[in-house]
Design a protein that fits this description.
By secondary structure, the protein is an all-alpha fold. Helices cover about 70% and strands about 0% of the residues. The chain contains eight helices and no strands.
Length: about 180
Amino acid sequence: MDDDELAVLMKAAQAGDSDAYVQLMREITPRIRNVVRSRRSFLSSDDIEDLVQDVLLSVHVVRATYDPERPFMPWLIAITRNRLADAARRYARHAAKELVVDDLDVTFFDENAKFNSDEFGDREALRVAIEGLPAQQRNAIEMLKLREMSLKEAAAASGTGVGALKVATHRAMNALRKALTQKKS
């Protein structure tokens, strides 16, 4: 089909002729695919098809803007060119945020940073340190850290507010850290 025949199909599609619209889509799809493939030959076939679908969707959305008195193919090529530019900008934004991590070390160099978080050096010292906490702090640690309750659940169980639990937990963690660090020294 030449440009005039495509323009006639688009005019009929704008008037509501669904058969003309289907035929138009069938006619322009391989043309769009050829344009995308020629301008983005480095893309995989899946990426090319994604771009073709993006262009077809744009044609569908802006079909009312086509002026039947003007040539059809320049209008279609302009839409295709704009979708290709949009895709390139999306790719550039995405690529700018990527960080290649293939060459980063899996663990830290410092041996002190390498520990198994499931194990604690002295469980008895931890038990004694927790027992030495004030009741409110001890309860907060037991509910939030040992039983892994949510703040809401722990607040309801203890009859205290979420804020008070957060403060008690923070103070308890500082006290435990201090007690266990002094124990090592």
